[in-house]
Design goal:
single chain, alpha/beta, Rossmann fold, 3 domains, 17 helices, globular, ATP-binding, repeat
């Protein structure tokens, strides 16, 4: 019987009176892939921060054995020296530095006090080849796409003689082809006896890559099962504690009169100004309608909705007609005052102020509602609105005063939605609304979207997940290379039909 590389025994981590992890145990063998599954806020990331010593020895109860010896780590450097590396969903690369400089950051090679760049360069080439990344080590990281940056992070971990690699939502921002490359690399780690703990809400990936699946819920261990023979339905039931009989709940709703019309919208790249990110886009939107926008990464979906919301950083032209009158927003504040709200694609960068409280983030865009004479804030009214929003969106937080940066990604997303709804918008734009969110929280967001359109609110949903677009939309815009290739009524639409429409050379609207 193979001995375990890692054993975590009876781990409990408290934040005040709250147990984020409650008596959880897990183990993994060398060369094994274990997927850690659970809803947002279930304790997955907290457990991995305990393992990687983000929360050091002495701040939690329980015991960790690594390679058969007690792991007593007082910081991340200690665990890295033992061969444990964690790659977070938000990458930790220095984008102004080269790939080589990032891979050797903190572990530089030197001879007689002088950097040994020649040998570092050769070593870097070997690490990049191992992750199937054919680039010059002197390339600046900021020039790479997200998928390539993810592979650089893995190469950086492999350079440190990693024995256990932890991947936290590694494919949340990757294309299908980039995801396939990453999964091949994880599969290849088995051949080098490198163990991997894989955290993802994409259950098809979990099933495809895992040897073992461990589920935790509300901080407690629910089950550990072999991946072979475990159905997605059974896995979902373990994760959420109930059956999700219909992931995309389609509910009848009336579609009203036109509220928005866009004509001839063209947007140019902010830096390479000869490149069109959106090319002569035209479409309409009606009250009580869910309009999905589908297309490959880079098709211009995000740039299109940024123009509508006044947040596009480059030059654009075209006409936007809102409630029958032409408008042009210089910034998002103007858009919000005219009844448009948006949940941005990058919630960390554009959606929250991490150091501010959950409550302050929720009311940040609507403070005028709670400001009376002399600029005084109605604190009681604001707190009541925060409580109602947290209850309505089911935001899991120990307190409205907790810094929002300490919430899970899914609960941050719910708080951003709460902020938008506090504006009482006529149009709600959702750009990748369920990225990095567990399946239970996804269904809650879909149910909320159904509630909003029944109230007459128009919703635009941008998503890289075609099943999501088809599952919730009344109509679908198929985009490719900046152009709207098709405007399709969603009556039994298939993924193949949408992709065929997006990729064909002729435009048909």
């Amino acid at each position: 019987m193979a001995s375990n590389l890692l054993e975590m025994k009876n781990i409990t981590k408290r934040f005040g009176q709250v147990k984020a992890v409650d008596n959880v145990s897990l183990s993994i063998e060398a060369g094994q892939v274990l997927s850690l599954c659970g809803e947002n806020g279930s304790g997955k990331s907290t457990l991995m921060k305990v393992l990687s010593a983000v929360y050091p020895h002495g701040t939690f109860d329980g015991e960790i054995l690594f390679g058969g010896e007690p792991l007593v780590a007082h910081g991340v450097r200690d665990t890295e020296q033992k061969g444990i590396a964690i790659i977070h969903q938000e990458l930790a690369l220095v984008k102004q530095m080269t790939v080589l400089e990032n891979i050797f950051l903190g572990v530089e090679w030197a001879r007689l006090g002088v950097m040994d760049y020649d040998n570092m360069y050769l070593r870097c080439q070997r690490m990049l080849a191992q992750v199937k990344l054919n680039i010059d080590p002197n390339t600046r990281v900021g020039e790479l796409g997200l998928g390539q940056q993810q592979l650089v992070e893995i190469a950086k971990a492999l350079n440190k003689q990693v024995r256990l690699l932890i991947l936290d939502e590694p494919t949340a921002s990757l294309t299908e082809s980039e995801t396939a490359i990453l999964l091949d690399i994880v599969d290849d780690l088995r051949n080098h006896d490198i163990a991997c703990i894989y955290i993802s809400h994409k259950l098809n990936e979990v099933k495809a890559i895992s040897d073992v699946i461990c589920v935790i819920r509300d901080g407690r261990h629910i089950a550990t099962r072999p991946a072979a023979g475990l159905s997605e339905e059974a896995l979902i039931t373990m994760m959420v504690g109930r059956e999700l009989t219909e992931l995309y709940p389609r509910q009848p709703h009336a579609i009203g009169e036109e509220i928005l019309r866009v004509e001839g919208l063209t947007a140019w790249h902010p830096v390479n100004r000869h490149i069109r990110r959106v090319n002569n886009a035209a479409f309409s939107l009606h009250k009580g309608e869910i309009l999905g926008i589908a297309g490959l990464v880079g098709s211009g979906r995000t740039e299109l909705v940024q123009c509508l919301f006044g947040s596009y950083p480059g030059r654009w032209e075209g006409s936007i007609i809102l409630n029958g009158a032409p408008v042009r927003f210089a910034n998002c504040r103007q858009a919000m005052r005219r009844g448009i709200a948006m949940v941005p694609e990058d919630r960390k960068k554009d959606g929250i102020v991490p150091v501010m409280s959950v409550g302050s983030n929720i009311t940040l865009a609507a403070l005028r509602q709670f400001t009376g004479g002399f600029g005084m804030v109605d604190e009681a009214g604001e707190q009541a609105a925060v409580r109602d929003a947290i209850e309505r969106l089911k935001v899991k937080t120990s307190s409205p005063e907790l810094a929002i940066g300490r919430l899970s990604g899914g609960n941050q997303q719910k708080a951003i939605l709460a902020k938008c709804l506090l504006l009482n918008p006529d149009i709600l734009i959702l750009d990748e609304p369920t990225r990095g969110i567990d399946i239970g929280a996804k269904q809650e967001i879909y149910l909320l979207i159904n509630q909003l359109v029944r109230q007459g609110i128009a919703v635009i949903v941008v998503s890289s997940e075609l099943p999501e677009v088809l599952g919730i939309s009344d109509r679908v815009l198929a985009m490719h290379q900046g152009s709207i290739k098709a405007d399709l009524i969603n009556r039994g639409l298939t993924q193949e039909q949408v992709m065929e429409a997006a990729l064909r050379s002729d435009s048909h609207v």
